[in-house]
Write the structure tokens for this entry.
Amino acid sequence: MGKLIYSGIASLDGYVADRDGDFSWSEPDQEVHTFVNDLERDAGTYLLGRRMYEVMSVWETLGSTPGAPDYIQDYGRIWQGADKVVYSSSLATVTTARTRIERTFDAEAVQKLKDSTDGNISIGGATLAAAALQAGLVDECQLFVNPVAVGGGLRFLPDGLNLRLELLAEHRFGNGVVYLRYRTLA
């Protein structure tokens, strides 16, 4: 059975984007990006909300840009090699290979996907991840905490979520980012 992993970059006060939707403060440096690549290498499928898909779709070509650093090329290959499911009621078409649109989040369908794979499934986008967390589908949360407070915006974890977690790993990077890996507990 596959694991559903929610991974994201957040501010110290728990936001993935500020009140204006800005997340430029979260861009990983080479050390963090290389670490993320190693985590994402095992993801056979990405589940993405529309906004996260629109942000991430640049990886369809970014990794093959002439002169791009090795870690950027590496992530481009990881992105291109994975299947992608975009949850959107408004997106008409997709611009990336190996991608399909689902109009609504169906917890039963995601559970069947988990049951039918041995690989990891990555879920991205705080709103979509909130639905999966509330449905009890997320097996792990991987959080990169940035040394910045933004004072409000879109939370990494939704308000009202009651969830117990067990710390599995932690890592501190030279730029002050801290990685935390948690298993969700029933």
The longest helix spans residues 70-81. Residues 44 and 81 are 8 Å apart (CA to CA). The mean pLDDT is 96.
